[in-house]
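Hello forum,

I keep getting stuck at the same step: I have a sequence, I want structure tokens, and every attempt I make locally crashes halfway through. Rather than fight my setup again tonight, could one of you with a working pipeline run this one for me? It's a single chain of 518 residues.
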Amino acid sequence: MRTIIVAFVGVLALSSCTSAVKENQLPTDSTTVHLRPRFHFTPQKFWTNDPNGLLYHQGEFHLFFQHNPYDKVWGHMHWGHAISNDLLHWQELPIAIAEDSAMIFSGSAVVDQKNTAGFGENAFVAFYTAHRILDPAHPDHYRQTQCLAYSTDKGRTWTKYDKNPILDLGKKDFRDPKVFWHEESQKWIMVVNLPTERKTQFYGSNNLKNWHLLSEFGPEGNTAIPWECPDLFSLPVENQPGKQKWVLLISAEGPYPGFQGMQYFVGDFDGVRFKNDNPPDKPLYVDYGRDYFAAVTFNHTPNNRRVLLGWLSNWAYANQVPTHPWRNGMALPRMLYLQKEPEGYRLLQQPIPTVDFLARSAIKHVNIDLHRIGELEITTPNRENDFYDAEGTFEFADDAVFGFKIFKSDTEETVIRYNAARKKLYLDRSRSGNTTFSPKFTTLDSVDIDTNGEPLALRVIFDRSTVEVFAQKGRYVMSNVVFPSVKSRGVSVFAEKGKGRVRLVNASFRDLMAENNR
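Reply #2:
Ran it on my machine without issues. Output:
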């Protein structure tokens, strides 16, 4: 495998290799092999959901993940494990933390560089929710506690702490601990949710074993469904040099009522308490697609750059998506930024820069009056590749309708469309391929984007069955899964005739290499 190592010096960049990660050979005896993403992590087989225990150590990115090693549906939760040099090529390793009398639910991991817990210098220490069913005849009778496991061989083997649980509130719903080192107060912080109460708790510790409650946050923002998978971190403000703000991520209801998604809060954290800058009833959403959930950031990345990784599916149909022998996977990792806008601080997201190094070829266009030609075919359905990076900058009139069509054939297409009159960007998967497995899958997702007279910049990255749209330099993001047939590989850029003027100022359509990938 071509070795790409990620170094964080302002942004991700190539550097020298310390050890190469080789990809496992994945099963090919599947009628849906054409749907397995090449550069998005999927397990070799069976079910996955939330990413867990994300950390970087000595040249390796570690992804632990919720995994059922026995079936393609949720159940028997273990922590699976995969490693990568570049966050794009992944090697799946044996199960890390296995189910015992309790399922192993979501959590996080740290490298205990100073041996504060006594397991050894640079030991990996993982924190997870133990989900214990109290009555097998009634699976809804359960109790959740926070537990610890540790590894002294870079995450290859794990030992569960003999004094677990480390936190037990006697509650049914109490889960998803995210732990990190808080330099200013010189202590470990655990962020963990009380889902049904729509609260986030903050605990402190000096040794990773004994924890004391510091404060609570919530309910604020969107409280329609339970809160899960919290994360807390600081980011520099890009357009305010020297300024830092704290971001709290919560997986809860997203922008579509009844569907799960993610929201974030921006404010201040003093080592004890988080204070939200925005009104308590003002939700801010991470992603405006239907399929982005449980995202958390990597611990210990060089230069404290923030890399976010999320699950690319939705509980409304995750157990039914039509793939074999695996079910569900992860989104592309993203770099996070923060900027000050007139209405407050807002999150920006960009694909990790290592995606740029995958470009095998590019088609470029400049200054095209798109409304005159209607649709510009970039590739045809018989093209060989199906992992693509399309970028375009559009100048447009107030009544224009335009965008991209991907995974296109005579009968199928996924459409990313901007309606200037409505000031909305849409992602339409109603004709995207196989949509029959769930009545909740055929959706029209949208986000309000007022460009204030400026051009619209779109970047669309798609990988066999994934679509991730980044608008206005990542200020707005939409992530969805689709299941096109093998014949649907065309790509075009379009403007609806009879609508307003659209000029494609510049565009780049990059075919991304397939060598040594899925």
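The longest strand covers residues 46-57. If your local run keeps crashing, start a new thread with the error log.
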